[in-house]
Amino acid sequence: MTELLRRLRFLFRRGAFERELEEEMQHHLALKSEHSSRAEAARQFGNIALLKENSRGMWTFTFLEQLAQDLRYGLRAMLANKLFTGMAVLSLALGIGANTAIYSFMDAILMSRLPVPHPEDLVILHWSNRDRAPVVHGINGSAWRDEKHGRISPNFPHAAYERLRENRSLPATVFAYARAYELNVVVRRQAEVLKGMYVSGGYYSGLGVTPAIGRLIADEDDRAGAPAVAVLSYQFWQSRFGSRPDAIGSQVLINNTPFTVIGVSAPGFFGVSAGHEAPVSIPLHAMPLFAPDREMEARYRFLDQNFYWVEMMGRLRPGATLPAAEAVLRTAFHRFALASATSENERTGEMPSLWLQEGRLGIDSLRRQYGKPLFVLMTMVGLILAIACANIANLLLSRASARRREMAVRMSLGAGRWRVIRQLLTESILLSCTGGVLGLIVAVWGIRSILWLLSPPGDELTLHAGLNWTVLAFTLALALGTGVIFGLAPALQATGRDFTPALKETRSSAVSGHRKRFAPGLGHVLIISQVALSLVLAVAAGLFVRTLSRLNAIELGFNRDNILVFTLNANQGGYKGEALAAFYSRLTARFRAIPGVQAAALSDMLLVSYHWNDTTVTIPGAPAPAPDKKPNTALIRVDPGFLAVMQIPVLVGRDLDARDLRSPRVAVVTEQFVKKYFPGQNPVGRRIGLHDTKAPADIQIIGVAKTTRYNSLKEEETPPLVYIPYSQDMADLGRVTFELRTGTNPLKISGIVRGIVHDASPTVPITGMTTQSAVIDQTISEQRTFANLCTGFAALALLIACVGLYGTMAYSVARRTNEIGIRMALGAARGGIVWMVFSQVTVLAAIGIAIGLGIAWQTGHFVASFLYEVKPTDSLVMAGAALALITAAAVAGFGPAWRASRVDPMAALRHE
């Protein structure tokens, strides 16, 4: 403590200390001068400046003072070289900003814990088996495959949840939930469609979430016959209720059913998935309130032991471990599954096997969807930053050669090598930190852009990606690390121990130092590395652009241009049966009357939108199918004008028209349907049945339409498809999509359309208003995003590499001015001078391209899953990338070579 106080006291009386120190030094020197000459006394006394420095080290914070000196000197050096500083800071800002943006998404999706107490105690329940288990009669949810578990699903019967919840001896408390993808929520006569959540009574208590105001859903709320209640998210409460306490007890309409708001969840709580925040949560047992037949829906949801639809999480009890809990829960669920078997075949078949996953990060749907793409993007932006670092290091190496004499003078005057290295590293870290600060601005823009690219049309991904403390720490570490990486090698080279030659060196004497300029050196290695990494990015960009080109060239079977699409669900707004059909019919008529609208229709799903609706089909006279191979077909319920709006030609028979809305049941099938079920026959006039193999074949085929893409551009095989009039199958009709074809940009009429719908019914909101082209583009958003980002990354990498080549060669030419003048004075031709400089660029670029092609060939399999009908080793792409690099290198190297050939020999010989 005494030492600290002494050093702090020195800061406030530094002037007095310096005067006293000077007087003491002069006093000691005078004492020595009494017995010898002044010069001899000074020699014996030693270096006064060094002695003063050592004395100051005993009284002050030497490291901090030296750091402040280094910072001031570094800032002056940056301001003195504005062009170099600007280029370095800009390239670093782009590299660091891109890395920060991608890392923010990795943090939000792959690393952020759920905002609940002790998330490490949470577990997620899944079941798996090699194929679909016989006891699983139906799934309403998700399923996927992996190499370890086979077929996986997080969905369970509600009865299984009840069985596990009631067993108090289990090592975990269990709660359940199910996503409500579209809820028509009306607050103060303003309707909107929201993604909600159905939750069990133990959902909030199991997660450990407390209410901001009011109370949360409990067990007494999640039971048959309980009052309809709802809990709002904190953000929704702020935006729609203005944070008013009187929201508690108020009523909101959800799917035209009144619910009482009982509470608001805690600030910052977004649910169990980072990308799917639920503004409204309601009890699981409220789900039948939205069904036409509530009693049947309740039996189906809560009593059927073979219908898998709820997801479950659990919290480990104190002292329990995940492996132990998994063993106990697996046994309990196996007993339930065995008891749910309805036949001997099911009892002897493979049962679903329960397993647990850590739940601290929440459910992993986003991690499975975006995990690999984010790692690929992180690798790409890492390469960009590596290229920028190599470029700046190369430029610093060139500057280090010019500063060798300066460094030699400083070291000859007593400066230690580490002291000089620290000074040079401070300069490089100042550059990188400045680039890091500007990189944060680039990152903010990048986060918004990537979020927009990832979000589906008319929707927004509710990811909490941003510049939090974790991301800022990553940016700081990245800035400091890059500063050390690109600054260390130049600093070591500039402070070589043999500095005597540097003290004697002049520009004219430096000629001999460049006779071995073509010998391999660190600068050459850095240039080769830049070219190789740039080629890898150029190959990746070429692969994704080629994939995108292949996808865009796919024949759709319909005209995607100038079609406005949007979705309504009047069923949730209170319209049923004939009233629902009449409502949609009136809207269609009004849409057709809008100026500029050429045709309008509706369907219960969009083409090429990642939607799928298939059903069983009955073909009279066809052989009886095997029990496990029922004939099926895709199905779309449409307005009679749908095929005309989409410009899908009818090849045989006729199109649907207005009379088919009320006539006996009819359908139009596609060529693929005919090929599969009526090969070599004319199906017009034949009859089929839908939904059940025992259903009557009462639907007459009246036409055959051209086959179109159905689910996505990348579907391996387009399924058979049946178009039927929507009015002939009203039982399942609710959510519909309107398609309006216009002569110009369809989004221009969006305001008119919204006004028409609001006038028709304020409680029926529009969702997903976009264009058919945007919907199709969304199905290839991953490829489009990669193509756009990689093309930008490749262009940036080429630019940085070219700047590095140009800067290095231009500086080399400047340093060799005397040599070039001598060569030209001795008769060297200008063409020879051009080739002398240009050949070096060519050799370096050729070596870098060869190495880059090898790297691209070996690593191509990492992006194979993102490609479509393109091989990772596509020779055309690699040849194009190599040609692009050769051209870029030639452009970068020609300028310095041409300038070298224009040197005046007499001026060069006098150059110093």
Question: How are the SSEs placed, and which strands pair?
Answer:
Blueprint: H1 2-12, H2 14-33, H3 38-45, H4 48-59, H5 62-80, H6 82-111, E1 122-129, E2 138-139, E3 144-146, E4 150-153, E5 155-156, H7 158-166, E6 172-187, E7 190-199, H8 203-207, E8 211-214, E9 229-232, H9 234-241, E10 251-254, E11 257-265, E12 280-283, H10 294-302, E13 307-308, E14 310-316, H11 322-339, H12 344-348, E15 353-358, H13 365-402, H14 404-412, H15 417-454, H16 469-494, H17 500-504, H18 522-552, E16 563-569, H19 577-592, E17 597-603, E18 614-618, E19 632-638, H20 642-646, E20 650-653, E21 666-670, H21 671-677, E22 687-690, E23 699-705, E24 721-725, E25 735-742, H22 750-760, E26 767-771, H23 772-779, H24 781-815, H25 817-825, H26 830-859, H27 875-901, H28 905-909
Parallel strand pairs: 2-13, 7-12, 9-11, 19-24, 21-23
Antiparallel strand pairs: 1-4, 1-14, 1-15, 3-4, 5-14, 6-7, 6-10, 6-14, 8-11, 9-12, 10-11, 16-25, 16-26, 17-25, 18-19, 18-22, 20-23, 21-24, 22-23
Helix pairs in contact: 2-3, 5-15, 6-13, 6-15, 6-16, 13-16, 13-18, 13-24, 15-16, 18-24, 18-26, 18-27, 19-22, 24-27, 26-27
What's the total helix number?
28
What is the beta-strand fraction? 15-25%
Overall pLDDT level = 81
Given the helix and strand composition, which structural class is it? alpha+beta
Overall 3D shape? globular
Amino- and carboxy-terminal Cα gap: 56 Å
Number of domains: 5
* Count of β-strands: 26
